[in-house]
Amino acid sequence: MRFSVTILGCNSALPTSERNPTAQVLNVSERFFLVDCGEGTQMQLRKNKIRFTRISHVFISHLHGDHCFGLPGLLSTLGLLGRTADLHIYGPSDTEKVFGPILAFFCRDMKYKVCFHSVDTDKSELVYEDKRVEVFSIPLTHRIPACGYLFREKEAERHIIRESLDFYNIPVKWIPLIKKGLDYVSEDGTVIPNSVLTKPSAKARSYAFCSDTKYSEAIIPVIKDVDLLYHEATFLSDNEGLADMTFHSTARQAAEIAKKAGVKKLILGHYSTRYKNTDLFRKEAAEVFQESYLAEDGMTFDIPNSGRDSEF
C-alpha cells in the first residue's frame, strides 16, 4: 500500500511564480490527509490530479496566512461540488474561532459538516487515529502557537504461513491470535512457536511535518527514527541571526535535527523568497546530513513498503 507525500506548496510567506505557500497531501494506504492549506491549495490539488472528495482530514500547523489562507476557498469549493461527508479540521485552539465566522457568512448553505478539533500545541499527543494510521502533534517553537504532525502507520498483523498451519493442523479459530503474535498451544500442551507459523509484516512507515519553527532539539524524541522528515528551512546560515529573531530555521539547523533524530530522509522547504537558488539549501544541509532533499511544488516523495530505499 502506498505511503507518499505530494508537495503542493513549499515557499514561505510570499508566493512566487514557481512556488506556492505551504500545503501538502499525504497518502497513507489511500487515506488522504491535507497538511496546511496556503493560498492556491485547491489549484494545486487540481494540477496534481488529487480529487477533493478524497480528503476528509485537514491538519493546520498554525494560523499564519501562508499556512491557512487557502482553507476558506477550499471549503466553499467542496460545498459547490456537493460534498455531504463530514470534513475534520485539526489545528491550534483559535482555528474554529477564526474560520467559524467565515463559514457562517460565506458557506451557510453547505450540505456537509465541518468538525473542528483543537490541538494542544504545548505537548505531543495523539490527535487522530483509524485502523491504519495514528497522528500525533509535535510542539513547535514559533511566534504564535504552532505544531507539526507525525503520521505513523500502525503495526500490521503478522503474515500467516499457510503451509505451516496445514502441517501442524492449526484450528481456524487460532488464526486471529497467531496473526497477533501468539504461539499455538495444542490440547496436549505442545507449543508451536509463532515464528514457525508466521512471517513479519512490512515495517510500519512514518512521516513528520515540522513547519514553522526555530531550531529546537525538544522535538527530537517525538520524531526519532522517522522514515521521512519535512523540516522548514526558511534561511541559509548567512541569515542565522534573522532565523532566530523570526523563529525560523536554517537549512543547516534542519539537517542537524535530522541527524540527531536519526531520521532516514530529510525534505527541506519553506524557502525565503530572498534566495533565488534553492540548490544552496541542499548543499548546506548535505554537509551535515547527506540524505537531504529539496521540496518543489508538484514533487511526490514515496516511502516504499518493502523497506528498500526510495528514489527521490
UniProtKB/TrEMBL annotation:
InterPro entries: Metallo-B-lactamas (IPR001279), RibonucZ/Hydroxyglut_hydro (IPR036866), RNase_Z/BN (IPR013471). Its EC number is 3.1.26.11. The keyword Zinc applies. Residues 203-271 form the Metallo-beta-lactamase domain. Gene3D superfamilies: Ribonuclease Z/Hydroxyacylglutathione hydrolase-like. One of its GO terms (molecular function) is zinc ion binding. Binds 2 Zn(2+) ions. Its cofactor is Zn(2+). HAMAP family: RNase_Z_BN (MF_01818). Homodimer. Belongs to the RNase Z family. This is Ribonuclease Z. It comes from Xiashengella succiniciproducens. The lineage of its organism: Bacteria, Pseudomonadati, Bacteroidota, Bacteroidia, Marinilabiliales.
